[in-house]
Design goal:
single chain, alpha/beta, four-stranded parallel β-sheet
């Protein structure tokens, strides 16, 4: 992801969806199912700084598109790994947790949901992803304290699967992706397993965001 600090706006969401469509096409068009996986990585010291808030406020349809991207990635047809080269804040944190696995830079960067400090509400689908991916006390600290988790803390609390030095984040993420890539040979079953695993989360991510407006 190479869009400055990778804040999500409609154009960025559309570009990511286009990339996922290309990957799906390549995967499904192969004569024989192959070991396949997806790795995402950001720019320099930032994975993603979250939503472009001004854009989100000015474009009511944006949030439905963003939640749709999270839903698509959460149940993607092949294994996914987020290579966290730096900060993953708010919407960027959500992007990371929509992946199956995470590798985080060990010397710099935080994982953080800072909505409590903005302040800003959290859509039910976003909250559902976080509840699914972490222990209750970690969820409490992330949401109610806005705690900034270092790589060491993230590893200790199982928010990430591995940590690595800056130059080794992408190689480590690729190695983890290659480890689990053969599971993609399960074909449609792999996605079906994800769909079943995240049934409740997907249902909440599918709630039109405008229906949540009275909560704000």
């Amino acid at each position: 992801m190479h869009n400055a600090d990778n804040r999500f706006n409609s154009e960025f969401v559309a570009a990511l969806n286009q990339a996922l469509t290309i990957i799906e096409g390549e995967y499904h068009s192969a004569e024989d199912l192959k070991a396949t996986a997806l790795v995402t990585i950001g720019n320099d010291k930032i994975y993603s700084n979250g939503l472009d808030l001004m854009h989100a406020l000015a474009n009511p349809a944006f949030m439905d598109g963003y939640l749709g991207l999270l839903r698509r990635l959460l149940t993607f047809c092949i294994p996914t790994v987020a290579a966290l080269n730096g900060h993953a804040f708010a919407g960027g944190c959500m992007m990371a947790f929509a992946h199956d696995y995470r590798v985080m830079r060990s010397d710099r960067g935080y994982i953080c949901m800072n909505e409590v400090d903005l302040p800003a509400p959290l859509a039910p689908g976003m909250a559902a992803i976080l509840r699914e991916k972490m222990a209750p006390h970690v969820y409490r600290d992330m949401i109610l304290q806005g705690h900034r988790f270092t790589a060491k803390e993230a590893l200790e609390t199982h928010l990430v699967d591995e940590i690595a030095e800056a130059d080794n984040v992408l190689p480590a993420a690729k190695a983890l992706a290659l480890k689990w890539a053969p599971k993609a040979k399960a074909g449609v079953v792999y996605k079906q397993l994800k769909d079943e695993m995240f049934t409740d989360v997907v249902a909440k991510l599918s709630i039109p965001y405008h229906r949540l407006a009275p909560r704000m």
